[in-house]
Structures are given as C-alpha cells and as structure tokens.
Design a protein that fits this description.
Structural class: alpha+beta
Helix content: 25-40%
Strand order of the largest sheet: 3-4-2-1-5
Order of helices and strands: EEHEEHE
Strand content: 25-35%
Largest sheet: 5 strands, mixed
C-alpha cells in the first residue's frame, strides 16, 4: 500500500507531500496505481520547480519513498500552491476511492509547520 500525506497551510496552500510504499496492485514496473501516483507527483514537482519565487526541496533518493516541500512565494505563487494542493487532493482521493487496498491518502492542515529534509 502507498501511504500519502499532503500537508497544507491555512488557506489551502500546498506545503509538503510525503509518499511511502508500493501500491501492490500489480508487480513493480507494471503497476497502474503506482504509475498514476508517479505521474501526479512528477507533474506537481515540475510545476512547483518552474514557479518563480519558490524554493523546492525534495528527497527522491529511495525507491518507493518521496518527499517534497516548498519555501517562499509571493501572491502569484500562493494561487499556484492552492491549485497544486487541489490537484493532489482530487487525484489522490480518486485513486484512494477506486483502489482502497492500494492507496491511503491523508491530509493535514496546519498553521505551524516545520517541514524539511
């Protein structure tokens, strides 16, 4: 099972994401659930890395484990961070509903966050 934790700031802006585990729907390399999660997360990372004013820190060093967070931002990037959180939430809730044995999605909203690598 893949455990995914989305952390947002008050107001719904993305702060960080952690994903651990293998969905286990099919064997590694052919798992459609893992492929969907990977595509979702890679798209989000790409968008964040291309957003002016944001510093993206990530740890993708271990297969089956992913962490990334953002620092900084102005008015324009806050809008992007809210949209990114919505995108992750919609995608992961959909996967968790369709594949409840393979994906567990949780979200935490906090005003006092201390994320980091």
């Amino acid at each position: 099972m893949t455990d995914v934790l989305l952390i947002c700031k008050a107001g719904g802006a993305f702060d960080s994401l952690r994903a651990d585990g293998h969905a286990g729907f099919l064997k590694r390399g052919t798992d459609i659930v893992c492929a969907a999660e990977t595509m979702l997360f890679r798209t989000v990372l790409s968008l964040l890395e291309k957003t002016d004013g944001l510093e993206v820190k990530k740890d993708i060093s271990k297969r089956g484990s992913l962490f990334f967070c953002v620092k900084g931002g102005g008015t324009r990037s806050v809008e992007r961070l809210v949209c990114v959180a919505d995108f992750i939430r919609e995608g992961m809730q959909s996967l968790a509903e369709e594949y409840p044995r393979n994906v567990r999605f949780n979200e935490v909203v906090s005003t006092d966050l201390s994320t980091g690598l």
